[in-house]
Amino acid sequence: MSYTKNFFDEKNDWSKHKDTLLNRYIVPYLVKVMTTKVDIITIDGFAGKGKFEDGTLGSPLIIKDGIYKAKSISKSQTKIFPYFIEYEHAEVLRKNLSDKNAIVISGDYRKEAPKILSENKGKNIFLYVDPFGIKYLDFEIFKNLKPEDYNSIELLLNLNSFGFIREGCRLLKCKQEDFDDDLPEQQYESDTTKNTIENMNKIANGDYWISIIKGYHNGDYDIFEAENRLLLRYKEELHKVFNYVYSIPIKKSKGRLSKYQMIFATNHKDGAMLMADNMIKCNNEIQEEINNGQAWIFDYNYSLMNIERDLLNILDNALINIKDLYDKVYNHYGFVYLTSDINNTLKKLEKQDKIIIYRYPRTTEKGKISKSMDIKKHTIKIKRKKI
After folding, report:
1. Which of 267, 289, 308 corresponds to the end of one domain?
2. Selection from 25, 41, 243 nearest residue 124 by Cα
Protein backbone atom coordinates (compact mmCIF):
# COMPACT_ATOMS: atom_id res chain seq x y z
CA MET A 1 0.00 0.00 0.00
CA SER A 2 1.28 3.47 -0.88
CA TYR A 3 1.91 5.97 1.90
CA THR A 4 3.16 9.54 2.03
CA LYS A 5 4.91 11.52 4.76
CA ASN A 6 3.82 14.80 3.14
CA PHE A 7 0.14 14.27 3.84
CA PHE A 8 -0.32 17.68 5.51
CA ASP A 9 1.58 19.78 2.98
CA GLU A 10 -1.36 20.44 0.69
CA LYS A 11 -4.97 19.32 0.71
CA ASN A 12 -5.94 17.17 -2.28
CA ASP A 13 -9.07 17.98 -4.26
CA TRP A 14 -10.97 14.97 -2.97
CA SER A 15 -10.07 15.96 0.61
CA LYS A 16 -11.48 19.41 -0.05
CA HIS A 17 -14.75 17.85 -1.19
CA LYS A 18 -15.22 15.71 1.91
CA ASP A 19 -14.32 18.66 4.15
CA THR A 20 -16.85 20.80 2.28
CA LEU A 21 -19.48 18.21 3.15
CA LEU A 22 -18.48 18.23 6.81
CA ASN A 23 -18.56 22.02 6.83
CA ARG A 24 -22.05 22.14 5.32
CA TYR A 25 -23.43 19.55 7.72
CA ILE A 26 -21.93 20.43 11.10
CA VAL A 27 -23.78 23.72 11.69
CA PRO A 28 -27.35 22.62 10.87
CA TYR A 29 -26.71 19.36 12.74
CA LEU A 30 -25.58 21.18 15.89
CA VAL A 31 -28.37 23.75 15.73
CA LYS A 32 -30.96 20.98 15.47
CA VAL A 33 -29.50 18.78 18.21
CA MET A 34 -29.02 21.74 20.54
CA THR A 35 -32.81 21.89 20.84
CA THR A 36 -32.69 18.61 22.81
CA LYS A 37 -30.92 20.50 25.64
CA VAL A 38 -28.74 17.40 26.12
CA ASP A 39 -24.95 17.77 25.97
CA ILE A 40 -23.38 17.24 22.54
CA ILE A 41 -20.11 15.35 22.14
CA THR A 42 -18.25 15.71 18.84
CA ILE A 43 -15.34 13.33 18.24
CA ASP A 44 -12.84 13.79 15.44
CA GLY A 45 -11.08 10.43 15.49
CA PHE A 46 -8.17 11.28 13.18
CA ALA A 47 -7.76 15.00 13.70
CA GLY A 48 -4.32 15.63 12.20
CA LYS A 49 -2.70 19.05 12.56
CA GLY A 50 -5.90 21.05 12.20
CA LYS A 51 -4.79 22.75 9.04
CA PHE A 52 -2.49 22.08 6.11
CA GLU A 53 0.81 23.79 5.37
CA ASP A 54 -0.88 25.69 2.52
CA GLY A 55 -3.23 27.25 5.09
CA THR A 56 -6.29 25.18 4.18
CA LEU A 57 -8.42 24.25 7.18
CA GLY A 58 -8.64 20.64 8.26
CA SER A 59 -11.56 18.94 10.00
CA PRO A 60 -10.70 20.18 13.56
CA LEU A 61 -10.88 23.85 12.60
CA ILE A 62 -13.96 23.20 10.48
CA ILE A 63 -15.66 21.61 13.50
CA LYS A 64 -14.45 24.37 15.84
CA ASP A 65 -15.79 27.12 13.55
CA GLY A 66 -19.04 25.18 13.12
CA ILE A 67 -19.55 25.00 16.89
CA TYR A 68 -19.12 28.74 17.35
CA LYS A 69 -21.41 29.50 14.42
CA ALA A 70 -24.08 27.11 15.73
CA LYS A 71 -23.93 28.74 19.16
CA SER A 72 -24.39 32.16 17.58
CA ILE A 73 -27.50 30.94 15.74
CA SER A 74 -29.19 28.76 18.35
CA LYS A 75 -31.22 30.14 21.23
CA SER A 76 -30.36 27.07 23.26
CA GLN A 77 -27.52 27.03 25.78
CA THR A 78 -26.81 23.33 25.21
CA LYS A 79 -23.19 22.52 25.98
CA ILE A 80 -20.94 21.16 23.26
CA PHE A 81 -17.74 19.28 24.06
CA PRO A 82 -15.41 18.83 21.05
CA TYR A 83 -12.85 16.00 21.30
CA PHE A 84 -9.95 15.71 18.88
CA ILE A 85 -7.87 12.54 18.84
CA GLU A 86 -4.44 12.81 17.27
CA TYR A 87 -1.67 10.23 17.37
CA GLU A 88 1.42 12.19 16.31
CA HIS A 89 0.69 15.90 16.00
CA ALA A 90 -1.31 16.70 19.15
CA GLU A 91 0.84 19.68 20.18
CA VAL A 92 0.65 21.23 16.72
CA LEU A 93 -3.10 20.65 16.75
CA ARG A 94 -3.50 22.39 20.13
CA LYS A 95 -1.61 25.39 18.79
CA ASN A 96 -3.65 25.55 15.59
CA LEU A 97 -6.96 25.20 17.45
CA SER A 98 -5.97 27.78 20.07
CA ASP A 99 -9.18 27.12 21.98
CA LYS A 100 -9.47 26.29 25.68
CA ASN A 101 -12.76 24.48 24.98
CA ALA A 102 -11.16 22.03 22.54
CA ILE A 103 -10.23 18.73 24.14
CA VAL A 104 -7.16 17.40 22.34
CA ILE A 105 -6.15 13.85 23.18
CA SER A 106 -2.78 12.48 22.17
CA GLY A 107 -3.29 8.83 21.38
CA ASP A 108 -4.65 6.07 19.17
CA TYR A 109 -8.25 6.46 17.97
CA ARG A 110 -8.85 2.73 18.52
CA LYS A 111 -8.11 3.14 22.23
CA GLU A 112 -9.24 6.70 22.93
CA ALA A 113 -12.60 6.82 21.11
CA PRO A 114 -14.11 3.97 23.18
CA LYS A 115 -13.07 5.78 26.38
CA ILE A 116 -14.77 9.00 25.32
CA LEU A 117 -17.91 7.16 24.26
CA SER A 118 -18.04 5.19 27.52
CA GLU A 119 -17.71 8.37 29.58
CA ASN A 120 -20.47 10.21 27.73
CA LYS A 121 -23.45 7.87 27.68
CA GLY A 122 -26.84 9.52 27.59
CA LYS A 123 -25.56 12.39 25.46
CA ASN A 124 -25.72 13.33 21.77
CA ILE A 125 -22.79 11.88 19.84
CA PHE A 126 -21.36 13.01 16.50
CA LEU A 127 -18.49 10.76 15.46
CA TYR A 128 -16.35 11.86 12.52
CA VAL A 129 -13.97 9.16 11.32
CA ASP A 130 -11.53 10.02 8.56
CA PRO A 131 -8.75 7.45 8.96
CA PHE A 132 -5.36 8.00 7.37
CA GLY A 133 -5.21 4.32 6.43
CA ILE A 134 -7.78 1.54 6.52
CA LYS A 135 -5.79 -0.55 9.00
CA TYR A 136 -6.67 1.83 11.86
CA LEU A 137 -10.42 1.42 11.31
CA ASP A 138 -11.77 -0.99 13.95
CA PHE A 139 -15.46 -1.85 13.44
CA GLU A 140 -15.78 -2.88 17.10
CA ILE A 141 -16.12 0.82 18.01
CA PHE A 142 -19.22 1.14 15.82
CA LYS A 143 -20.63 -2.18 17.00
CA ASN A 144 -20.56 -0.97 20.60
CA LEU A 145 -22.60 2.14 19.80
CA LYS A 146 -25.85 0.89 21.29
CA PRO A 147 -28.61 3.41 20.48
CA GLU A 148 -30.24 2.97 23.90
CA ASP A 149 -27.04 4.18 25.59
CA TYR A 150 -27.13 7.63 23.99
CA ASN A 151 -29.62 10.40 23.32
CA SER A 152 -28.58 10.30 19.66
CA ILE A 153 -25.69 9.02 17.56
CA GLU A 154 -24.56 10.14 14.13
CA LEU A 155 -21.56 8.79 12.23
CA LEU A 156 -19.80 10.36 9.27
CA LEU A 157 -17.17 7.98 7.94
CA ASN A 158 -14.74 8.33 5.06
CA LEU A 159 -14.22 4.75 3.97
CA ASN A 160 -11.41 4.01 1.55
CA SER A 161 -13.18 1.01 0.04
CA PHE A 162 -10.85 0.81 -2.93
CA GLY A 163 -7.83 0.95 -0.61
CA PHE A 164 -9.36 -1.92 1.35
CA ILE A 165 -9.64 -4.01 -1.81
CA ARG A 166 -6.09 -3.23 -2.81
CA GLU A 167 -4.78 -4.20 0.63
CA GLY A 168 -6.90 -7.36 0.59
CA CYS A 169 -5.45 -8.32 -2.79
CA ARG A 170 -1.96 -7.82 -1.44
CA LEU A 171 -2.62 -10.03 1.58
CA LEU A 172 -4.36 -12.72 -0.49
CA LYS A 173 -1.80 -12.43 -3.30
CA CYS A 174 -4.45 -11.60 -5.89
CA LYS A 175 -4.15 -9.49 -9.04
CA GLN A 176 -3.78 -5.72 -8.70
CA GLU A 177 -3.28 -4.51 -12.25
CA ASP A 178 -6.34 -2.24 -12.26
CA PHE A 179 -5.26 -0.19 -9.27
CA ASP A 180 -4.83 3.56 -9.21
CA ASP A 181 -1.38 4.47 -7.88
CA ASP A 182 -2.23 7.99 -6.72
CA LEU A 183 -4.64 6.84 -4.02
CA PRO A 184 -3.93 8.99 -0.95
CA GLU A 185 -2.71 7.19 2.16
CA GLN A 186 -0.75 8.21 5.22
CA GLN A 187 0.76 6.09 7.93
CA TYR A 188 1.83 7.16 11.40
CA GLU A 189 5.60 7.50 11.19
CA SER A 190 6.05 6.01 14.66
CA ASP A 191 3.73 3.07 13.97
CA THR A 192 5.37 -0.05 12.58
CA THR A 193 2.26 -2.25 12.85
CA LYS A 194 1.77 -4.42 9.78
CA ASN A 195 -1.70 -5.16 8.49
CA THR A 196 -2.94 -8.78 8.55
CA ILE A 197 -5.94 -10.78 7.42
CA GLU A 198 -7.07 -10.86 11.05
CA ASN A 199 -7.00 -7.07 11.23
CA MET A 200 -8.88 -6.82 7.93
CA ASN A 201 -11.61 -8.93 9.52
CA LYS A 202 -11.76 -6.41 12.37
CA ILE A 203 -12.04 -3.56 9.90
CA ALA A 204 -14.84 -5.22 7.92
CA ASN A 205 -16.53 -6.90 10.90
CA GLY A 206 -16.24 -10.28 9.23
CA ASP A 207 -14.38 -12.24 6.59
CA TYR A 208 -16.94 -11.68 3.82
CA TRP A 209 -14.40 -9.50 2.01
CA ILE A 210 -12.25 -12.53 1.19
CA SER A 211 -14.82 -14.11 -1.14
CA ILE A 212 -15.42 -10.71 -2.78
CA ILE A 213 -11.75 -10.28 -3.59
CA LYS A 214 -11.39 -13.87 -4.75
CA GLY A 215 -14.35 -13.33 -7.09
CA TYR A 216 -12.60 -10.31 -8.56
CA HIS A 217 -9.33 -12.24 -8.84
CA ASN A 218 -11.10 -15.12 -10.64
CA GLY A 219 -12.67 -12.74 -13.16
CA ASP A 220 -16.26 -13.21 -11.95
CA TYR A 221 -16.64 -9.40 -11.98
CA ASP A 222 -14.53 -6.28 -12.42
CA ILE A 223 -13.01 -3.99 -9.79
CA PHE A 224 -16.04 -1.65 -9.85
CA GLU A 225 -18.40 -4.49 -8.95
CA ALA A 226 -15.98 -5.70 -6.28
CA GLU A 227 -16.05 -2.27 -4.66
CA ASN A 228 -19.85 -2.18 -4.91
CA ARG A 229 -20.18 -5.59 -3.24
CA LEU A 230 -17.79 -4.64 -0.48
CA LEU A 231 -19.65 -1.40 0.17
CA LEU A 232 -23.05 -3.09 0.31
CA ARG A 233 -21.82 -5.68 2.81
CA TYR A 234 -20.09 -3.07 4.94
CA LYS A 235 -23.28 -1.01 5.06
CA GLU A 236 -25.21 -4.12 6.07
CA GLU A 237 -22.91 -4.42 9.09
CA LEU A 238 -23.57 -0.77 9.99
CA HIS A 239 -27.30 -1.40 9.63
CA LYS A 240 -27.03 -3.65 12.67
CA VAL A 241 -26.41 -0.48 14.70
CA PHE A 242 -28.06 2.29 12.68
CA ASN A 243 -31.51 2.48 11.10
CA TYR A 244 -30.33 4.65 8.22
CA VAL A 245 -27.05 4.13 6.38
CA TYR A 246 -26.17 5.93 3.15
CA SER A 247 -23.09 6.43 1.04
CA ILE A 248 -21.87 8.49 -1.86
CA PRO A 249 -18.54 8.31 -3.71
CA ILE A 250 -15.92 11.03 -3.74
CA LYS A 251 -14.14 10.72 -7.06
CA LYS A 252 -11.26 12.45 -8.76
CA SER A 253 -12.74 12.29 -12.24
CA LYS A 254 -15.57 10.76 -14.22
CA GLY A 255 -15.50 7.02 -14.60
CA ARG A 256 -12.69 6.37 -12.14
CA LEU A 257 -12.79 4.45 -8.91
CA SER A 258 -13.83 6.40 -5.85
CA LYS A 259 -11.14 7.90 -3.67
CA TYR A 260 -13.44 7.57 -0.70
CA GLN A 261 -16.95 6.47 0.06
CA MET A 262 -18.63 9.00 2.33
CA ILE A 263 -20.81 6.95 4.65
CA PHE A 264 -23.41 8.56 6.88
CA ALA A 265 -25.27 6.61 9.54
CA THR A 266 -28.00 7.73 11.91
CA ASN A 267 -31.08 6.46 13.73
CA HIS A 268 -33.13 9.55 12.94
CA LYS A 269 -35.01 10.29 9.73
CA ASP A 270 -34.48 14.03 10.11
CA GLY A 271 -30.73 13.50 10.26
CA ALA A 272 -30.90 11.39 7.13
CA MET A 273 -32.81 14.06 5.23
CA LEU A 274 -30.45 16.79 6.38
CA MET A 275 -27.39 14.85 5.28
CA ALA A 276 -29.00 13.85 1.99
CA ASP A 277 -29.63 17.44 1.00
CA ASN A 278 -26.15 18.49 2.08
CA MET A 279 -24.48 15.67 0.17
CA ILE A 280 -26.41 16.49 -2.99
CA LYS A 281 -25.72 20.23 -2.73
CA CYS A 282 -22.06 19.51 -2.13
CA ASN A 283 -21.96 17.21 -5.14
CA ASN A 284 -23.67 19.83 -7.29
CA GLU A 285 -20.86 22.22 -6.40
CA ILE A 286 -18.32 19.56 -7.34
CA GLN A 287 -20.15 19.04 -10.64
CA GLU A 288 -19.55 22.69 -11.52
CA GLU A 289 -15.82 22.05 -11.35
CA ILE A 290 -15.85 19.32 -13.99
CA ASN A 291 -14.87 21.69 -16.77
CA ASN A 292 -11.71 22.47 -14.83
CA GLY A 293 -10.80 18.80 -14.54
CA GLN A 294 -11.98 18.49 -10.96
CA ALA A 295 -14.02 15.74 -9.27
CA TRP A 296 -17.06 14.19 -10.91
CA ILE A 297 -19.93 12.42 -9.21
CA PHE A 298 -23.09 12.92 -11.26
CA ASP A 299 -24.99 15.47 -13.32
CA TYR A 300 -27.88 16.56 -11.13
CA ASN A 301 -29.93 18.24 -13.85
CA TYR A 302 -29.70 15.09 -15.93
CA SER A 303 -30.79 12.90 -13.03
CA LEU A 304 -33.89 15.08 -12.51
CA MET A 305 -35.18 13.84 -15.86
CA ASN A 306 -35.92 10.51 -14.17
CA ILE A 307 -37.42 11.72 -10.90
CA GLU A 308 -41.10 11.18 -11.86
CA ARG A 309 -40.40 7.67 -13.08
CA ASP A 310 -38.34 6.80 -10.00
CA LEU A 311 -40.98 8.05 -7.55
CA LEU A 312 -43.76 6.17 -9.32
CA ASN A 313 -41.66 3.01 -9.30
CA ILE A 314 -41.35 3.21 -5.52
CA LEU A 315 -44.92 4.24 -4.73
CA ASP A 316 -47.73 1.69 -4.67
CA ASN A 317 -51.32 1.58 -3.43
CA ALA A 318 -50.28 1.49 0.25
CA LEU A 319 -49.91 4.75 2.15
CA ILE A 320 -46.35 5.74 2.99
CA ASN A 321 -45.12 8.56 5.20
CA ILE A 322 -43.12 11.05 3.14
CA LYS A 323 -40.06 10.60 5.39
CA ASP A 324 -40.15 6.87 4.72
CA LEU A 325 -40.46 7.65 1.02
CA TYR A 326 -37.28 9.73 1.18
CA ASP A 327 -35.53 6.80 2.83
CA LYS A 328 -36.69 4.40 0.12
CA VAL A 329 -35.48 6.79 -2.59
CA TYR A 330 -32.05 7.13 -0.93
CA ASN A 331 -31.66 3.40 -0.43
CA HIS A 332 -32.85 2.45 -3.90
CA TYR A 333 -31.29 5.19 -6.01
CA GLY A 334 -28.73 6.78 -3.69
CA PHE A 335 -28.49 10.46 -2.82
CA VAL A 336 -29.75 11.72 -6.17
CA TYR A 337 -32.66 14.05 -5.42
CA LEU A 338 -33.04 17.00 -3.07
CA THR A 339 -36.04 16.67 -0.77
CA SER A 340 -37.37 19.93 -2.23
CA ASP A 341 -37.30 18.43 -5.73
CA ILE A 342 -39.01 15.27 -4.48
CA ASN A 343 -41.71 17.42 -2.90
CA ASN A 344 -42.22 19.52 -6.02
CA THR A 345 -42.46 16.39 -8.16
CA LEU A 346 -45.00 14.83 -5.79
CA LYS A 347 -47.17 17.95 -6.09
CA LYS A 348 -46.88 17.71 -9.88
CA LEU A 349 -47.89 14.04 -9.84
CA GLU A 350 -50.80 14.96 -7.56
CA LYS A 351 -52.02 17.50 -10.10
CA GLN A 352 -51.68 14.88 -12.83
CA ASP A 353 -53.96 12.64 -10.74
CA LYS A 354 -51.29 9.91 -10.58
CA ILE A 355 -50.91 9.92 -6.79
CA ILE A 356 -52.94 10.86 -3.74
CA ILE A 357 -51.40 12.97 -0.97
CA TYR A 358 -52.97 13.03 2.49
CA ARG A 359 -52.03 15.95 4.72
CA TYR A 360 -52.80 16.14 8.41
CA PRO A 361 -54.22 18.58 9.35
CA ARG A 362 -56.15 18.69 6.08
CA THR A 363 -56.92 22.40 6.18
CA THR A 364 -55.00 25.62 6.71
CA GLU A 365 -55.68 28.02 9.58
CA LYS A 366 -58.07 29.85 7.25
CA GLY A 367 -60.02 26.66 6.58
CA LYS A 368 -58.76 26.06 3.03
CA ILE A 369 -57.66 22.64 1.78
CA SER A 370 -53.94 22.41 2.43
CA LYS A 371 -51.55 21.85 -0.46
CA SER A 372 -48.45 22.21 1.71
CA MET A 373 -45.50 19.82 1.66
CA ASP A 374 -44.07 21.25 4.89
CA ILE A 375 -43.22 18.21 7.02
CA LYS A 376 -42.71 20.45 10.05
CA LYS A 377 -46.36 21.55 10.01
CA HIS A 378 -48.02 18.46 8.53
CA THR A 379 -47.95 14.72 8.64
CA ILE A 380 -47.82 13.80 4.97
CA LYS A 381 -48.66 10.40 3.51
CA ILE A 382 -48.74 9.37 -0.12
CA LYS A 383 -49.93 6.49 -2.24
CA ARG A 384 -50.18 5.76 -5.93
CA LYS A 385 -53.62 6.09 -7.40
CA LYS A 386 -55.23 2.94 -8.68
CA ILE A 387 -55.60 2.88 -12.44
Report:
1. 267
2. 41
